[in-house]
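Review session, final week

We close the course with one last complete record, chosen because it touches almost every idea we covered. It is Entericidin A/B family lipoprotein, a protein from Franzmannia qiaohouensis with 43 residues. Go through it on your own first, then we will talk.
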Amino acid sequence: MKKAIALSFALLMTAGVLAGCNTIDGAGQDVERGGEAVQDAAN
């Protein structure tokens, strides 16, 4: 029973980390686009 709980917890944590990576990647792209806009405005 403890193994099943531990496995379930590990799977949920893995799913959370993978979902978080996508969110952070999207935020990074937004920041990059913002920086490019600032560079374009400066030129």
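Two points worth writing down before the exam:
The longest helix spans residues 2-42.
The radius of gyration is 19 Å.
Good luck, everyone.
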